[in-house]
Amino acid sequence: MNKKRIVRIVTAVLAAMLVLVAMFSLTSCAGSKEEKIESSWTAADADAATYFTRILPMSAEAREKFVAASRGYNMSAEGFDKNADAPNLGVVDLEGAKAALELVKPQDDASKVKFEEFRTALTAEQVKDIVTRMGETVSLEADNGPIDTLLVWIGKFLQILTKITGGKYVLGLLVFALVVEIVMLPFGIKQQKNSIKQAKLRPKEMAIRNKYKGRTDQATQQKMTQEIQKMYQEEGFNPMGGCLPLLIQLPVILALYQIVIDPLRYVLGKAATLSSALTTYCTTAKAAGGLGLSIGNGKGTIELLSQAGNKLEGLKSFSYFSNAQDCYNALNVGSSMPDFTLFGLNMGNVPSFTSILVLVPILTFVFYFASMKLNRKFTYQPAVQDAQMGCSNNMMDITMPLMSVYIAFIVPAAVGIYWMFKSVLSTLKSFIMSKVMPVPVFTEEDYKAAEKALKGKGKSESRPVERTAASGTKPRSLHYIDEDDEPLPPPVPERIEEPAKKKVEKDEPATEVKPSQVPNLKEDRKNTDNKNK
């Protein structure tokens, strides 16, 4: 037999075997899929089940109403209170489920017909099956990046301080704020040294400004600024050096804020997905198995943990999560949970006008306003040259404390207390700095010495100036500020030359002058004197 023919036969046999294996695999998969949905769905309804399983979670309202219907409640009924205590009745309310499906009704006509057929034939078993299919698996493993890992380490340190203070979260925050101020102290010292150097250069700066006093054109102001910057450069002073500590402190403050408001993630070290799961459970209506708490977004988990407390038992059977029991076990931290109360008040709650916690925003305004005023007294403040700038500073003294009041009304009270305590520490630090490293105050003698030095320097570096003969003064140009404004001596009048005598042409004959034509100068002078008399 030919070798080529043998190879062809073997290849054909192998290909046939591969086709049979593939067909068997596809048949097995189709059979298992059909067996999976055949318990509660017909083959015609399989696509509808997949569609609603995918589309319902996209609408929080539709999902909430559908899950509530699976528990026996019709949230669309008139007068229904979704946040009333509602244990699981175990009976499906088909009317409520169909009302929930109306919220995700398809738009095209062909799908609408199929949708209506499915909705009409919906059964209780199908409702429960859709709810089971919608259950999400919550990842309980923390997947933190470098920044989040650093924040977790800082949060662990806050947890240690909380335990030292008896488990009180607010007291731990106060000690934590003190430690942060101590860590940031080197930057405060650098900023104070920069202020001292700026204060020492203030007489020279004022002398330069006084030199250009009264000249408000753009060219003059630009030259004045350049001269001040040159003086700073010669003295080795960087005006922006004092901003560096503030720029470093800003991201630190923002990072600490995240740690304070989200203790579940950073203090207890739980996964970010678990924080989201807790938020979902707490804000879902009681009819759907949640706690029905009214909590806004962006406030972290401190308010959730303070309000949920020991009400997490319902999380075990929460139908939104397929691993609800595991979520409950992860959140049941026992003694590791911080105590958010202080003096009998829950500082994890957000202040409102109906509770005594309204004192927190009010005190925040008082502490912040007093802190700004005292800090300006204890720290160096450059003299304000512009009246408009002074008005802006006064506006800042009011608007910034008012903004702190607004923020204190939308975040838990513990954050407001932390803010107040930091204001007190900041003022205390400024007071100590002003005593240990006082800022010099220049006197009139210092200013005169700086002005004298500036004039001497100006004469040595002055350049020749063109002078105008007509006016006796030098030109004043907006693009060149003269170093010396002394007037010039009066101009010397120019010598006026007499007109040249008419030349006598050689060819022209000389004219004889008669004696009678010669003027009697003595007689003319005598007549002129008589007229003047």
Offer a few descriptive terms.
533 residues; mainly alpha; two-stranded antiparallel ribbon; 21 helices; 59% helix; 1% strand
Tell me about this structure:
With 533 residues, the chain is mainly alpha-helical. The protein has three domains: 43-134, no CATH class; 136-201 and 237-458, no CATH class; 204-229, no CATH class. It has helices spanning 3-38, 46-55, 60-70, 94-101, 109-120, 124-134, 146-164, 169-183, 185-200, 202-211, 218-235, 243-261, 263-266, 272-283, 302-308, 324-331, 359-378, 387-410, 413-436, 444-461, 521-532; strands at 341-342, 345-346. The chain has a two-stranded antiparallel ribbon. Helix 2 crosses helix 6 (124-134), helix 3 runs antiparallel to helix 4 and helix 8 runs parallel beside helix 19 (413-436).
Topology as a string of helices (H) and strands (E)? HHHHHHHHHHHHHHHHEEHHHHH
* Helix proportion range: 55-70%
The total number of structural domains is: 3
pLDDT averaged over residues: 74
Given the structure, what is the number of helices? Answer: 21
What is the alpha-carbon Rg in Å? Answer: 45 Å
- The best one-word shape is elongated
Distance between the termini: 163 Å
Strand content: under 5%
Biggest β-sheet: strands ordered side by side in the sheet: 1-2
Task: Give me the secondary-structure category.
Answer: mainly alpha
Q: In total, how many beta strands? A: 2
Uncertain stretches: 21-43, 462-494, 496-522
Specify the biggest β-sheet. 2 strands, antiparallel
